[in-house]
Design goal:
The protein is built from four helices and 14 strands. By secondary structure, it is mainly β. The chain has one domain: Jelly Rolls (Sandwich), CATH 2.60.120.10. It is globular. This is DUF985 domain-containing protein. It comes from Cylindrodendrum hubeiense.
Amino acid sequence: MGEYTFNEPALGALKPIFAPSSEPESLQTTALIQTLALLPHVEGGYFSQTDEDPKTIPSPYPLTPLSGETASQAVPPRPGFDAAVRRLSTTIFYLLTYRRPLGRFHRNRSRIIHTLHRGRGRYVLLHPDGRVESFIVGNAVERGERLQWVVEGGVWKASYLLDTEGNMASEGAQEPEGLLISETVVPGFEFADHEFLSERCLEELVPEKAMALGWLARKSEEAEEVTDSSEESDAPDVNSGETVEIGEAVEIKISKGKEE
């Protein structure tokens, strides 16, 4: 589907472009975060729920959470949550930024439809059979970049920010605009249906590829409390340093060129 889309990728091509930064977000990014009332997401990046279908359906999933770790972090549980019921759908904004440029491997029981609004990034999917799929999301559709993409339930996904065309990630260059998308989850999102991929499970799923993909797996020290954006809350002060830390930074260097 184009030079920027491939299955079973050369894993050496999957490399971080931007390191998580201790510096404040740019004024432009801060304004966007505050305008959209985004909060730090436990997966990385920022999010805000924008819609939930008022209709509900009987849950097609087991009553027990997919991950006890994730469920235990959802404190407090979403008001009105019933393990036997699911909302028909939910939609969020999701943003990766220069400071929070990485969404670590996780999966959901439900199907997720993604729509690009701005920016550029790479997605890496791990299928249940161990197949690795990767593609770039962006506006260069003539080269295979995607404006919409679907991740089926049970598929592990990770994402990271790429530089936009013509904006090289070199010293003195303008900070990238970030990757802003919408995600619609069907049936609707619940933390009971969410699970992170640990480094140990990654080794079990793809033993020959685990070393190359390990930087996309969640580190045990990165556990943090889940925030429910449906609760009434003011937009965070992203410059305070109190709510946007994501644990131990990935020790990498910023690339001096765009990803090819």
